[in-house]
């Protein structure tokens, strides 16, 4: 269903851009309408082949096709937004009829320029984003504990083991006491390659490496991915909890969007937190939903990902309607929530306006009277 919706949206964007660019004097003088339509169909076909064949097939050719198709989708989105903004201002040419074609030409140039910026930002290494969190109930001996979190790497056809190895080096350079993987580490199509597994095995921390499953891992099969993580020395929390150090409890739930779509898991958060918590508690959830329920259960810190921070402006605005906690730090009923915008990308390897991130959280003992 998601693939059908995506292809339908891209088809509409293609039709819209062909319609609006056909009126540009620069193109009309150089390219006849038939050639423009042929070019549009060729690019649409590239996207569809990349989505259907490239997305689900192994090999270099499939990866190249998927990357090309997804990149074109990103260019389409940014160009459509630019053209539509001009059409709104000019009433689709009713106002300023003489100036409107030139403004549409400028909009196409703007869309291309934004795409180039997004490609550069999407290719940059994620930055380390630092947070300090006062955690209620944290024992004095754990004051200063450093947690480093990775989310939404989407390792697969378009992000390989070499890229993951670089992210592992970044994580270890932060000297974490604990490492948490917040879901969608894998793209979920095909099994991780040997170099990916080897890179994961290099993740080490005194208080362990912990993971929860994202929607993409659940696409691939939650039990299968859990075994892969376990074989790499990573403990997966599937709607459960563990005491990582006396006085500090880590709770993890499976992806809430997958649970919601399946309609079979009930309220995972309430079920997982049904029994009382003792000491300081941190919850890992790929999707930043149900934060109010988590806070009422006595959790002091919730770490999430999934949203990518919108990834491509202005896509963050509609994303925020579904995920109000989009990216960064929030306070919900006294509990701190940190939502990572992810270290990688989904779809086009593009970001606008912010790069990916790795979160580094330093835990502090809650001050008396605070």
Question: Which SSEs are present, and which pair or pack?
Answer:
Elements (H helix, E strand, L loop, with lengths): L1 H20 L3 H4 L4 H24 L3 H31 L9 H24 L3 E9 L10 E5 L10 H13 L4 E4 L12 H8 L7 E3 L3 H6 L1 H10 L3 E2 L3 E6 L2 E6 L2 H7 L5 H5 L7 E6 L5 H6 L4 E4 L11 H7 L5 E5 L2 E5 L17 E9 L5
Parallel strand pairs: 1-12, 2-3, 3-4, 4-5, 7-8, 8-9, 9-11
Antiparallel strand pairs: 2-12, 6-7, 10-11
Description of the structure:
- With 370 residues, this protein is an alpha/beta fold.
- It folds into 2 domains: 122 residues, no CATH class; 239 residues, Metallo-dependent phosphatases (Purple Acid Phosphatase, chain A, domain 2, 4-Layer Sandwich), CATH 3.60.21.10.
- The protein contains 13 helices and 12 strands.
- The strands form 2 sheets. It has a 6-stranded mixed beta sheet, with helices on one face. Strands 6-7-8-9-11-10 form a 6-stranded mixed beta sheet.
- Strand 8, helix 12 and strand 9 form a beta-alpha-beta unit.
- Helix 1 packs antiparallel against helix 3, helix 4 packs antiparallel against helix 5 and helix 6 packs parallel to helix 7.
- The chain is elongated.
- It starts with a helix and ends in a 5-residue tail after the last strand.
- The relative contact order is 0.14.
- The model has no long low-confidence stretch (mean pLDDT 90).
